[in-house]
Structure to design on (216 residues):
């Protein structure tokens, strides 16, 4: 099912309102979407909602084991008063903490958030052009440098086609392009956020070359 950014925004805002009415905390996990990938520093900024607790991990230390739980001073104080403790194997590890600080510096210093927005627009435009050309390309969705391509049976039938998706996946692999296949029929595309215009263009070219082998 195709979902617009407006519908996603409405859902997220409704969740926030329900949480507030019930005295609950809204927790947003941005392990994959945080630090610029969606064209904003945090994905929740697209939806006009501020979570009570934000979790970050994967891009935070560029592959090293570092995560963060970000919250307000009020919630932090309540946790301390109630004796809530949190420990992990790598708590207070100076190496990964230093790398994490450097990652944040580079993301802000090099304007990678704005770059991801521009490159994401290039990516989604290219994917939508492929959608117009190939009937087996179903929904195209995404935000910034996080996109999804749905593979369907084509023509007027928009039923998902797992067998075709697997075939395309094998051909993409042989062509040197890795697109993660999720839910059996949706390719997840997530280039690094400092990718170049030429790299996005080449990736789209490989997709088109493979799709040409499948047919229209």
């Amino acid at each position: 099912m195709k979902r617009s950014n407006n519908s996603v925004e409405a859902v997220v805002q409704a969740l926030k309102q329900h949480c507030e009415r019930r005295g609950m905390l809204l927790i947003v996990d941005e392990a994959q979407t945080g630090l610029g990938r969606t064209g904003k520093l945090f994905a929740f900024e697209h939806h006009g909602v501020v979570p009570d607790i934000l979790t970050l991990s994967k891009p935070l230390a560029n592959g090293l084991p570092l995560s963060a739980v970000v919250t307000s001073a009020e919630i932090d104080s309540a946790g301390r008063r109630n004796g809530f403790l949190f420990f992990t194997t790598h708590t207070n590890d100076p190496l990964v903490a230093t790398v994490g600080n450097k990652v944040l510096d580079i993301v802000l210093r090099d304007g990678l958030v704005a770059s991801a927005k521009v490159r994401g627009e290039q990516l989604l435009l290219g994917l939508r052009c492929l959608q117009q050309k190939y009937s087996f390309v179903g929904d195209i969705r995404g935000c910034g440098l996080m996109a999804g391509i749905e593979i369907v049976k084509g023509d007027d039938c928009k039923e998902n086609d797992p067998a075709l998706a697997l075939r395309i996946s094998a051909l993409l692999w042989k062509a040197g392009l890795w697109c993660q296949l999720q839910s059996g029929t949706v390719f997840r595309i997530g280039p690094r956020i400092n990718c170049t215009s030429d790299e996005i263009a080449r990736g789209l070219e490989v997709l088109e070359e493979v799709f040409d082998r499948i047919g229209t």
